[in-house]
Design brief:
With 427 residues, the chain is α+β, with helices and mostly antiparallel strands. The chain has helices spanning 2-21, 26-29, 41-74, 94-123, 127-133, 135-138, 265-276, 287-297, 338-348, 359-372, 413-424; strands at 159-166, 169-173, 187-188, 190-194, 199-205, 210-214, 218-223, 229-233, 239-245, 257-263, 327-328, 333-334. The protein folds into three domains: 2-76 and 93-123, no CATH class; 135-276, Immunoglobulin-like (Sandwich), CATH 2.60.40; 287-424, no CATH class. It contains eleven helices and twelve strands.
Length: 427
């Protein structure tokens, strides 16, 4: 009887187990935002703690579940049993009770030790990582052009990046390197870090609670208004990583993404120099030149900064080098050829592989983004839907000054085309 019942259970359970295991393929674990594919020491430590917990839970499930199934089958009611239940008075088995309490404490200790170790390890850059990650160890203080890359006072420090959360985008500043809002050099939505180097992240919020999360590099940490939080990250493989805000923060929370570009130290130096360079002037008489005039006339310069051309905007993302970025609209719109991108990822079996920015895709995204943000039509003159619901472009009372009219800019298809052509020159 028991063997027949066991056989039936096995026949039913086997297909279910196979179905569940089918989701454990390598492709399913290495998607763009997978915590099960760590690419840095912080993510690896957190992954190890998670797996320790999984192993323990599997053992407990098998043990408890197995005993439960055995008890149900072994002591089930039979037709030959006395219909009158037999109730025995007693206080249990002290040895079993003590054993279960001891086992429970042991299970907690099994989880607590790696958890506390991980909390200590991920709190700040460990001492052993500082020696190889401090600026003087990998980034020359004076470049080949004779210019100082960073002050001597910070050469023994690791690279620090200030992450400022806003509704609904991230602003990144590198205070040691002069990439700050005060210097009119900031980087919106795309953080760049050197491969294999520990980086301290200073987390700040200018409005509500946000959360900084790059699944393959480090777990999430909140950005709290009025409070300073910090974390550290390190990526051991070059690539284009995907992150997002992991704390509900308003209408466009789901659209508040960002990217993390991991590059070699030499490429990082070149990127910093490019970010400090002013924007190139568009050629006279071109659509781009007309677009620059529209940028001023339509009050875009009230919120956005373009170093070397418009320097008043501090509220919205810096657009000095917008054409070099692989994403737009808080990283919601991808500026790459998506077919080529998917083909490359499939070919290399690597979601961090990346194709360059595609100018045609970027232009289409710029028109879509500007034309749909609070306006009623796009480049073709037809009604459009907001790319990011609740975004404040065109629909924001500047600085919340009482009595100041809300900006509701309207654009014709020609104006959108000229604005896009101008922004394409900002590389």
């Amino acid at each position: 009887m028991f063997s027949r019942l066991f056989h039936r259970v096995a026949v039913l359970a086997a297909p279910l187990c196979l179905f569940l295991l089918s989701g454990c393929s390598k492709e399913a674990l290495t998607v763009r935002q997978s915590t099960l594919d760590p690419k840095g020491p912080v993510a690896q430590m957190q992954y190890d703690v998670f797996m320790d917990t999984v192993y323990l839970v599997v053992v407990l499930f098998a043990l408890v579940g197995g005993l439960l199934v055995y008890a149900v089958i072994r002591f089930r009611a039979r037709a030959t049993d006395d219909p009158k239940p037999i109730v025995e008075e007693g206080h249990g088995n002290p040895l079993i009770e003590i054993g279960l309490i001891t086992a429970s404490i042991g299970a907690l200790v099994f989880i607590a030790i790696p958890t506390l170790s991980a909390i200590w390890y991920t709190n700040d850059v460990p001492t052993e990582a500082v020696a190889t990650s401090k600026l003087s160890a990998w980034y020359p203080r004076v470049g080949a052009d004779g210019k100082e890359n960073y002050p001597k006072a910070v050469e023994e420090q690791v690279l620090e990046i200030d992450v400022i959360g806003k509704q609904w985008w991230f602003r990144f500043e590198y205070p040691q390197l002069g990439l700050t809002s005060d210097a009119k050099h900031t980087v919106p939505n795309e953080i760049v870090i050197p491969k294999g180097k520990a980086v301290r992240i200073n987390l700040r919020s200018e409005d509500v609670i946000h959360s900084f999360w790059i699944p393959k590099i480090a777990g999430k940490v909140d950005l709290m208004p009025g409070r300073k939080n910090l974390m550290w990250i390190q990526a051991n493989e070059v690539g284009h990583y995907y992150g997002q805000c992991a704390e509900f923060c308003g209408d466009s929370h789901a659209y508040m993404l960002f990217r993390c570009e991991v590059v070699e130290p030499a490429a990082f130096d070149a990127w910093v120099k490019a970010q400090k360079a002013p924007a190139a002037e568009p050629a006279a008489g071109t659509k781009a030149a007309k677009g620059k005039e529209l940028f001023a006339a339509k009050t875009c310069a009230m919120c956005h900064n373009i170093t070397g051309q418009f320097g008043a905007g501090m509220f919205a993302p810096d657009l000095t080098h917008v054409a070099s970025r692989k994403s737009l609209a808080g990283a919601w719109l991808d500026n790459r050829d998506l077919q080529a991108q998917r083909a490359l990822e499939k070919k290399e079996q690597n979601t961090e592989a990346s194709v360059p920015v595609d100018p045609a895709t970027l232009k289409a995204n710029l028109i879509k983004w500007i034309g749909s943000s609070g306006t009623s039509h796009g480049a073709d003159g037809k009604p459009t839907k907001d790319v990011k619901p609740g975004n404040r472009m065109h629909y924001y009372a500047m600085f919340n000054v009482a009595g100041l009219n809300v900006s509701k800019q309207q654009f014709t298809a020609e104006e959108l085309d000229c604005l896009a052509e101008y922004l394409l020159t900002l590389k």
